[in-house]
Amino acid sequence: MIFKQLFDTKSSTYTYLISSGKSREALIIDPVIENVNEYISLLEELDLKLVKVIDTHIHADHVTGASELKNITKCSTIMGAHTPAELVEIKVKDDEYIDVDNLKIRALYTPGHTSDSYSFLMNNHLFTGDTLLINGTGRTDFQNGCSKSAYNSLFNKILKLPEETFVYPGHDYNGKKVSTIGTEKKFNPRLQVNSIDEYVDIMSNLNLSKPKMIESNVSRNIKLGSN
Ligand code: FE
Description:
Blueprint: E1 2-8, E2 13-19, E3 25-29, H1 36-45, E4 49-54, H2 66-73, E5 76-80, E6 90-92, E7 97-100, E8 103-109, E9 118-122, E10 125-129, E11 132-133, E12 136-137, H3 147-155, E13 166-169, E14 179-180, H4 181-187, H5 196-204, H6 214-221
Parallel strand pairs: 3-4, 4-5, 5-6, 10-13
Antiparallel strand pairs: 1-2, 2-3, 7-8, 8-9, 9-10, 11-12, 13-14
Helix pairs in contact: 3-5
The structure holds fe (iii) ion.
């Protein structure tokens, strides 16, 4: 398997490039528009053909490279069925599988950070977008975010996966690259709660400032990054 975790320094976003390496077909999860040339060079270097690109949700802090990658490579664009992005070609439902080469990627509907947030499970690799971060969880204070749904997505879905499942988040602001479900269950401060109300309480008191350019990022992302 070919697996690359790429980092966008401006937005601290992780982008993932994956291929089984057999038929040279590749998938990218959460591309950032400014880094599209880097992805194209990497695909060429690895002799891979990009066939699918997934966005885990409509991002507020960066613009997706999905549209641009589609223009260059003719790849298909994928998001979860709850996305407001009408241009998305393949909308996957909860528990539906995406095939790339010999790889099977299971879509999991995990709303909370946004109402359209999905996570994606490939064998024991879980791509959590902003649903579960390392030592944190995605904020729930805009884009139809809801801390009750986030609690359910976390405690009744994601954390029920085997403890050894690797967690690959959509962002990290402290240089951490990967964790496991077991480690997050034990040490993630947001997950040390005894009730949904306790979680809602934590999330309502974060007092975070809004991401820069949230309005223009969201409106561009609804068009998959095109102008
Ligand atoms: Fe996000």
